[in-house]
Amino acid sequence: MTAVLPWVTLAVCLAITIARVPSLIRGENRVVFYIFALITLDILLSIEGPYLAIDALLGGINVTNLILRFLLYGTFLLMGIKIAMGFGSQSAVRAIRGPWGLTVLGFTVALTIFFFVITDTRGSTVGMTGLTWGPSMEAYAALGRFYPGYVSACLLPAIWRTIVGRYPALLRGASALLFLGLALLLISQFFPLIPLVHLWLRSLINYSAVLATAIGLAGIWFSKAYSRRKRRLSA
Amino acid sequence: MPLQSKAFQRWLHGVAPDASTADVCRIAGIKRTTLAQQLVRGKVAESTLVSISRGFHLNPVEALSTFDLYSDLRGAAVPPTGCELVSQIATIDLLRSVVERSEPGSAPAASLSEPPHPTSVRNWVDAIDDGELRHRVSDATGIAPQNFSAHLTANRLPPELAIATSRAGGVGPAGGLVAGGLITEAEAGWPPNARREALDRMSQSELVTLAGERLLALGKTLRRQEQDHERTERIWENLG
């Protein structure tokens, strides 16, 4: 199942991204398209075939993984700002886009580069699982989980208020999925506690998180379209 | 808790011994799947019983009263209090009445719309509340006060809770069923003009004060709805 899950996730994200193209052309909420496109790209680079092909072009020292980290940080920066603004959490907007949030991001990026450089990353493998994992490698991986987790932690309270608040049922359902996805990213902070023999559990959590987040975000969009259509029909 | 399906089937057999389930549903205007589902689950909704009673030209209150849960409804109908009657007049009708009294002869008195109106349940509970009603209801039924409040806000009153509330309020057992929309005022035995007469008995000051209270509450509700709407729109604007 864990072999299929990445491809399923990729297909879902790609489908949502393509479905956003008409809105992109009309100029509606372009950032949402970029978010989905970024998520799709993130997934693509997490799958073995595409990863190895691209990394081979880039010298086979897993630079692709570093690029993937930056793409992920960008995805979460964009997504975090949009979700925080949408769910009306000023504190979350400040914690992500404000000076403190940008400092956190800056340190994460700098440390990510630092640990990448001091680690021997020769030998292209997806997720760098084929390398010898020393402390610097652990730190590098932890940083990659940290920033998405940080953004998630900022967003969860506001999303929770929407789930339990007086909102359209579809919107609450979509928010619940989004909540689940982001909560899984928080849980992923504890990956080092999962024994290496259970690597499948890590990828199950990761891909479930992406799926829930992407479907949740698309669900919010769907709930809007649904409500607009209902209003038009009743008018 | 709704009616036990065993007792319900016994009742149905007494009412329509020869009718098939399909006939019953057709006459009552309910979906067959709905009834079948309720029977399978072992719990039949009171509204189903009411629809069937109406289909067979029986008084739903009498039909309900044959079940032990609703034994309060047995016997002669207890007349509603003035406050209860006024609580079941829609806010817009109250406002119309204010206008009619302030400008006599401007328009003929319009007929009052049938209960329930959009805030029937809360108005009815407020009308019979002596300040301790909610405590007594929650002691008697075990319902948490915030759940009771949620029912009032949603303008819902499950029949069993309606009975318990009237009992705790010391008023006739059918009033809550009218406010909750399960039965009509006529079925509850309220005289046809009772609400109009109760309204006419109110002095100008009582009427205007009540209308003011209703408007104030309506304003609060509307403001909350507008805020909810704004928040929803903000989410959609950013992420839709």
Structure report:
- The complex is a heterodimer of chains A (235) and B (240).
- Helices cover 79% and strands 0% of the residues of chain A.
- Chain A has 235 residues and is mostly helical.
- Chain A has one domain (5-226).
- Chain B is mostly helical and 240 residues long.
- Chain B folds into 2 domains: 3-58, Orthogonal Bundle (434 Repressor (Amino-terminal Domain)), CATH 1.10.260; 82-201, no CATH class.
- In chain B, helix 7 crosses helix 14 (204-239) and helix 9 packs across helix 11 (159-169).
- The longest helix of chain B has 36 residues, at 204-239.
- Chain B is globular, with a radius of gyration of 20 Å.
- Chain B starts with a strand and ends with a helix.
Q: Work out the oligomeric state of the chains in this entry.
A: heterodimer
Q: Structural class, from secondary structure content of chain B?
A: mainly alpha
Kindly report the spatial arrangement of strands forming the biggest sheet of chain B.
Answer: 1-2
Low-pLDDT stretches of chain B: none
The total of beta strands of chain A comes to 0
Total domain modules of chain B? 2
Number of E strands of chain B: 2
Bin the helical content of chain B.
Answer: 55-70%
Question: Which value, in Å, is the CA radius of gyration of chain A?
Answer: 18 Å
Structural class of chain A: mainly alpha
> Strand count, sense and closure of the main sheet of chain A?
none
Low-confidence segments of chain A: none
Largest sheet of chain B, if any?
A: 2 strands, antiparallel
Topology of chain A as a string of helices (H) and strands (E):
HHHHHHHHHH
